[in-house]
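User: Assemble these into one structure.

Assistant: Restating your components, then the assembled model:
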Amino acid sequence: MGSAVIVRPSLGVRARRLGFAIAQPVGSVVIALIIGAIIMIAFGFDPIKGYGGLFRYAFLSEFNITVTILNSVPLVFTGLAVAFAFRCGLFNIGAEGQLLVGSLFAGWLGTLIHLPMILTVPILLVTGSVMGALWALLPGVLKATTGAHEVITTMMMSWIGLYLTSYLVKNVLMDPRSTIPASNRITEQADLLTLDKVFPFLFGRPTRLHIGVFIAIAVAVFIWYLLTRTSLGFSVRAVGSNPFAAEAGGVRVSRSIVVSLLISGALAGLAGTVEILGLHHRVFDRFSAGYGFTGITVALLAKNHPLGVIPAALLFGALTNGGAGMQLAADIPIDIVDVLSGVIIFLVAAEEIVKGFGRRRAKRQAAAQALALSSGDEGAVA
Amino acid sequence: MQAISESPPRVGGDAGDIVVRLTEISKFFPGVVANDRVNLDLRRGEIHALLGENGAGKTTVMNVLYGLYGPDGGVIEVEGHSVRIKSPNAALALGIGMVHQHFMLIPRFTIVENVVLGHEPRTRFGALDLFEARRKLVELSERFGLAVDPDRRVEDASVGMQQRAEILKALYLGAKVLILDEPTAALAPQEVDDLFATIRSLTDGGLSIFFITHKLEEVIEISDRVSVIRAGRVVETFDTARTTKEELAHRMVGREVVLRVEKTAHTVGEPVLEVENLSATDHRGLTAIDGISFTVGAGEIVGIAGVDGNGQRELEEVIFGLQKHTGGRILLLGEDVSRLDVRKRIDRGIGLIPQDRQRRGLVLDFDLVENVLLGNQWRALYSRPLGIDYSYLREQAGEAVEEFDIKTPSVEVDASTLSGGNQQKLILAREIRRGPKLLLAAQPTRGLDVGAIEFVHRQLLELREHGVAILLISYELEEVLSLADRILVLYEGAIALEVSGDDAVREEIGLAMTGGSRRNG
């Protein structure tokens, strides 16, 4: 064939590549479920009943699937937040604090303004992401200027954010008539439309599902595009893979670091803001169920791919929801869900174990192929 | 685990006494035949060079012998007995040791600790007993003239000493057969001489050595026999005394190779790069470049000669803007660029072939397409309002691959899968296709085989024809002598000697490189 260079691999090749990329996370989940089953048997539970309950309570009714999806929405945002920073080589483990700070200020502003919905919603979403981003600004600047490790600084900022928001909710925003620490109701103009209002022909009755679901998907697609198709995303990924080569390629490395953490923080802030505007309509003290931390798990399972974050978030949304069902149906402690996610993370992190099987097979095939070729006529494959 | 019996060694007639015989060894990797029915033998006490281009399969077949890879076919015989070598430990038990190109030492450990690592001697109470090991190490070190300080930490030892430590480790573990993988790649010229002396004392002491290299001079100088490997096959095995460099180069590359590219005389244009009183410090803050001035004109190759560590790295980084200067100016076509960042300098027309190509030049886990994009990501060529035009970029990458003859199955494989020579071609393609006015070429052929070196040299000379100013920084004096129109010798951050390429006197340059002379102009 001479010098013909394959510029674009065939559809089949690319499909196989995608298959390989997905096989590992999926395999990890399957193995985790098997290990979970073994643990259940070891403790005298019936795994079939357990998983049956999990599945039923996660998916098998309009109500259940609604809860699962609602659980997943903030995880898509926090998963994206962590994944984006990861692609720049940064480990933002403080998404929880960025989420709380972002949503607190968005919610606070929401109790004060009175504008039409078409303005209110965008203003509050922007506020939430800007405040989330600001909460990540200091770690970003410290990393870029002094090299202070972001794992330490984002975590510290996260605790500051947690206590700050808690203090503000209890002492400044709290509705005097309320018995629990929560703010006044945010203006109704800020409520994210529920899907029965947007698609009345699809939903016969009112649903809690809100347009935040679509915002999450749209943002995931946007982040994917940003990372893989723009020069900003390219620079961020170059810094994440090899900052020295990125620098020699004219990338301003410290700026990329700051920008990545800002975007990461903005996504985390968006997570909390959508949650509040879509579901709670008030700012509660510590309303987040650890979404920022679960986001790390989601990003890992998604292998930091922005689109992979969607199914990964859905899985963890389903696990938290279905875990309760497992407890109801088979009396299995909900903690087994934590065991499952622990095993999943372990397997995803320990790539080689799962990959090894596939690779050994590929190697054997290649060997057979090469042998067939060389026994034909001329040997070496270029 | 002992596989060698006490049976008398087989004597193979006039072929001498064969220690290791590889018969029909094949090794496959996905899509590649790395070794195709390779036949090799090693006689007792000989130095057997394995010569081949990067990616020819020299290291692979030795990794098979060392037990790192299982062969997909063929037979290994050691001392006349057919053996299966499943791990490096099994290889060591058979008396086969290997020193890799990249040392496998723990920087924080001392040399003696590294030597015993994995085979730690214990006292009766189970504690680590370094005393006996140290004694044995010193004895070996003296016997073979391998000078090391056993108590020095590896991170504080010179590259040469680290290499001697690796060799000693193999000897300590009882190696009778030593595989040296490109042992000179990391060494300074003086250290190479020391290494060759060591190797001779090892063979005098009864060891047999496989010597992997792609450098013709080394083969001629050190080896008794040489096997040329091309595309996974042994092309031919020669007695070194009965062959020539030209013949070896031809067999190795598979075509006639010009070992020294012809340079045409022509006139130098306007100054492109003007360096005035430039100073810079190294990473410890010590003076690395000490107020140097020089110019490079359009169509001129200025060669910076010198021993590694005399300010070359800082010069490269400072001119490209990767490191701040501490004094002086850098003018590009009359404009002061010394305060501009890398991106602006690229825009002004500076290209870089970095001496550390895997660290500075490429993002190894990006594919070829995105490596072509590096340094171009903001440029109108690829950048569109809605993002990067990847389909156009892919086309361009495909063109680059063809134009620079980069051997790859596709442009969408990671740069890490390319051989060293092809990685360098990829960098060249990217930098040259950008159309630089000034090209900084630092160690542009380090680690490359003759075919690739010829290619790189031709490219540089072609750029010179097109009026590009080239600053060539190289530790290979030969390279500087054959390419440069003018030669500056850098010694301790200052220019110790400046000569024109025509009246370049090798001895004088060599002397200046070691601080022996200071002639002005």
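Residues 1-14 of chain B have pLDDT under 50 and may be disordered.
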